[in-house]
Write a structure and sequence with these properties.
Layout lengths: L1 H13 L6 H9 L19 E2 L5 E5 L7 H4 L7 H12 L20 E5 L12 H19 L6 E4 L30 E2 L19
Parallel strand pairs: 2-3, 2-4, 4-5
Antiparallel strand pairs: 1-3
Helix pairs in contact: 1-5
């Protein structure tokens, strides 16, 4: 329970954060799309979620204004969710292939999902300042897994400050910036190639 308690404490701090005025103004002013009329948007920083004992950690860039900022769960209710959760389900890392709302019954298995920046940025473009502000939270949460030596992929967004390779290339070892270097190393898989996520029953490659 120690890992779960630690991640819960981090999430509690995340959802009340107001350190970036630009992101606060944007997330609180986004107008609901017609397709979501009547829904109450989350409009807060979006914490990570998943299995506290994960061996797979997926790191995205930031929540979407009408995805995570609407539902309160990262990679939920938008186009990225359709790709990501189908791939995770096929790999045996989730109990269902869709993620539409925070109460839809989704359970991640040995997998944890988070974002480098916790709020949706204007035009999907975080500034260096907002990325730097959020970095300490990402470091604390990722450290909960690196201490156990994850031997599976971190899926990096091209805008996150490490290299995850390009479409069609072999998975490459992450170039981790200090102080986020994991104790036992990780491997990254290109986000744009679902074929690189292991199929159900396939052993996850080590570092």
């Amino acid at each position: 329970m120690a890992a779960e308690d630690a991640l819960s404490a981090i999430s509690e701090r995340v959802v009340v954060c107001r350190k970036c005025p630009r992101l606060v103004r944007y997330r609180e002013s986004v107008r609901a799309r017609r397709a979501f009329a009547g829904q109450i948007y989350w409009r807060k920083p979006v914490p990570g979620f998943g299995d506290p004992m994960a061996t797979v950690v997926v790191v995205g860039l930031a929540p979407a204004a009408h995805g995570g900022e609407r539902t309160g769960r990262v990679f939920t209710g938008d186009e990225s969710a359709r790709f990501l959760y189908r791939s995770l389900f096929d790999a045996g890392l989730s109990n269902q292939p869709t993620s539409e709302s925070a109460d839809d019954g989704l359970v991640l298995l040995s997998c944890y999902i988070t974002a480098a920046v916790k709020c949706a940025p204007p035009e999907d473009k975080p500034t260096p300042r907002s990325s730097g502000t959020a970095a300490s939270t990402l470091t604390r949460s990722s450290g909960r897994f690196s201490a156990r030596g994850p031997s599976s992929p971190w899926e990096g967004s091209p805008s996150v400050p490490w290299s995850a390779g390009r479409k069609g290339r072999e998975p490459t070892r992450l170039a981790w910036p200090s102080p986020m270097e994991p104790r036992s190393g990780c491997r990254a898989f290109p986000r744009s190639t679902p074929a690189t996520i292991p199929a159900r029953g396939t052993p996850t490659p080590g570092p």
